[in-house]
Amino acid sequence: MSAVNFYDDSLRAAAYETVGVEGTYAIAFRELALILARLPRREAALDFGCGAGRSSRFLINAGYRVVGVDIAQEMVARARRADPGGDYRVLSGDQALDGLKPAMFSLVLVAWTFDNVHELSEKRQILTGLRRVLADDGTLILIASAPEIYTNEWASFTTAAYPGNRAAKSGDVVKIRIKGTEDARPYEDTYFTDADYRRVFGECRLELRATHRPLGYASEPWNWISEKATAPWAIYELSKPRGAK
Ligand SMILES: C[S@@+](CC[C@H](N)C(=O)[O-])C[C@H]1O[C@@H](n2cnc3c(N)ncnc32)[C@H](O)[C@@H]1O
Predict the structure, then answer these.
(1) Given 33, 60, 64, 148, which residue has the most CB atoms within 10 angstroms?
(2) Using an 8 Å Cβ cutoff, are 135 and 103 in contact?
(3) What structural domains and CATH numbers belong to the chain?
(4) Ligand 1 centroid distance, CA of 66 (Å)
């Protein structure tokens, strides 16, 4: 598992806890709602990398029974505090998902978690575990930062202080800062291209049903900077190939 998790830090966790379904993030949640509306059933969902519970609460409000899991105790503590009746668990170790029953979730959400999973091999290992707990007719939705996020300015993020991002190649560290939080330190993400993601999905026998790259709308109440022309997020909709186990 990741050697460094920048979220297991009380200043960072406290700052991230204040980030809601707003600004640049709102674009992804708007698209997520549209994807969920097309799915046949709203039952058990796994929120992998639930953080302070923002994405879990979004699924709960959409009608799912949610298990939220995360490796950062600091974040899970905040998810529990915001939703004392919810099911939030701290994962530890490589066998972390083994306690979950096979095929028990009709939906698995991975929302921004993979920006902080630094090795391709680790992404592969996690996706293999998530595939096991995904129902045969279930949907896995992975929301990732698009490569373009690291070289533009956004309503919710700045990258201007990190010109090194422009030369980033697959697997390199890239930096980005969330605007308007107490934590002025950048997030150190790992740069992954669309081709990287597609390769891992294939290796993990996950079929890519659709890729969504939503833009900001002029009618939305946020001060868009790049959002109307450049998609900040890549949202992958995946499933097990038909007939596969
Ligand atoms: C950017 S936050 C997103 C949190 C939440 N999904 C949301 O939308 O607010 C990413 C989270 O992924 C978690 N994370 C990173 N690597 C992980 C791993 N290997 N297993 C589980 N969680 C992980 C971090 O601890 C952090 O809480």
Answers:
(1) 64
(2) yes
(3) 10-148+192-239 (3.40.50.150)
(4) 15
